[in-house]
Amino acid sequence: MKIFTAAQIREADAYTISNEPISSTSLMERAAGRCAAWIEDRYTPAQPIYIFCGKGNNGGDGLVIALQLLQQGYPVTACLLEYGSRASEDYTIHFRQLHQQYPGRIREIADVTGFPELPPGAVIIDAIFGTGLNKPIEGWLAGIVHKINDVKRQHTIIAVDMPSGLMADGSSRNMPVIHAQYTLSFQFYKLAFLLPENAAFAGQVHVLPIGLHPEYITQTPARYHITDIDMMRTIYQPRQPFAHKGTYGHALLIAGSRGTMGAAVLAARACLRAGAGLLTCHVPQCGYEIMQLGEPAAMCSTDEQPDFNTHFHEQADARYKTIGIGPGLGTSAATARSFEKLLAVYKRPMVIDADALNILSVYPYLLYQLPAGSILTPHPKEFERLFGSTTNDFERLELLSRQAVRLQLYILLKGRYTAIACPDGAVYFNATGNPGMATGGSGDVLTGILTGLLAQDYSPKAAILLGVWLHGYAGDLASAELSQEAMTAGDIINFMGKAFLSCFPPEM
């Protein structure tokens, strides 16, 4: 699914109005009708509803929602915020309808003192400012935002399209923003919903289709995307009847040191669960028995050193379709030297995680020696060590994309919506996963999955999109059965089979 900018969303509205064709008033009624239907499905007419309306088209949406709910018997009060801006044309049309039909349900508010006394159980609908907002909310309107946020614990807050005060395409840090429990967004996710700094604002996001013209959507390029199952089904490669283990590649996993062999075992198990035909794990001598017992399906080579890896570059040859490196590896000077030698001799895309990323942050010139198309998998702190700090999430997203293009690498930034930056400048946000996956070893499992997919001749882009999706989806299946609290990284691996079967049933 494409993620459009606020300007592109306005263009989509205009294109729909011109080419469906449909009037702007009718398109507003269609969008507001989706919101009203969502509210009717979840709330009864016994609950009082207060709709706060600005004077633009977001406020117009609020007026239509008020009209439709009043027609269904809901006790709605439309709170109209009277500030200096001129009302939009569609707002004016629907204000007249509301005033003619339900004049007693309108309450005009000209300052903070006009904020209503809310009865118990009231539902607040925020239709003050939408995607058109391009500056912070100021003055008494900011006071209204604070008033609404102050009663969040006692009342449900539903934002229409976007929480008021939230910028669609830029940072809203330290600005007054509505803290909604639910956001009813029209047709598309907004970029702001997917960034951690805005976690307190949107709550649960429900994207409601409003019938924007499909030609605009398909023909208009977008820099940002959010993954979905349809995308994954175009990427997935089903197994062939005459295949054998050599068909699905031989991967090399370089991982582990004394005290962190669990990371190596988790990555190895995940690599094989992702479908790699063969796997060799290079581990220090102290990890030989652990690996042979922990994942007997993997072959094992041992380093010259007992406690950490120092000569793994000698293992890299044409047998291996790809190499995954980093889980539990350690960051000794000897390990770093072997990593540099590995990059001199191995030129296929690799998966680079954990301590391999930490080595890159200490020796940043090695970034320029990574094979083109390699996959880096940092969490936010690792990303900062590699590329520097930023003042907000939008700046960090720009930095992420810029580095992927400059280095011609795939860089994923782990999070609730893991961001995947591609060498062509595109950025994908992953839609699967849950907070139960915030547990030690989860990243090692992802490294194994990505390594296993690269070994099977998935392109780096296909491997990273599919791998991150499956990793999150297996976590979702595990949490549904085990709870988020009780999940461990091993459970993600154990649910990989169900993830494949759920996403790609055999009859496909």
UniProtKB/TrEMBL annotation:
Transmembrane segments: none
Residues that bind AMP: 414-418, 443
Keywords of the record: ATP-binding, Isomerase, Lyase, Metal-binding, Multifunctional enzyme, NAD, NADP, Nucleotide-binding, Potassium
EC number: 4.2.1.136, 5.1.99.6
Keyword Flavoprotein among record annotations: no
Cofactor: Mg(2+); K(+)
Cofactor note: Binds 1 potassium ion per subunit.
GO biological process, one term: nicotinamide nucleotide metabolic process
GO molecular function: ADP-dependent NAD(P)H-hydrate dehydratase activity; ATP binding; metal ion binding; NAD(P)HX epimerase activity
UniProt: K(+) binding residues: 58, 126, 164
Family: In the C-terminal section; belongs to the NnrD/CARKD family.
Complex formation: Homotetramer.
Known role: Bifunctional enzyme that catalyzes the epimerization of the S- and R-forms of NAD(P)HX and the dehydration of the S-form of NAD(P)HX at the expense of ADP, which is converted to AMP. This allows the repair of both epimers of NAD(P)HX, a damaged form of NAD(P)H that is a result of enzymatic or heat-dependent hydration. Catalyzes the epimerization of the S- and R-forms of NAD(P)HX, a damaged form of NAD(P)H that is a result of enzymatic or heat-dependent hydration. This is a prerequisite for the S-specific NAD(P)H-hydrate dehydratase to allow the repair of both epimers of NAD(P)HX.
Protein name, entry field: Bifunctional NAD(P)H-hydrate repair enzyme
Organism (species): Chitinophaga solisilvae
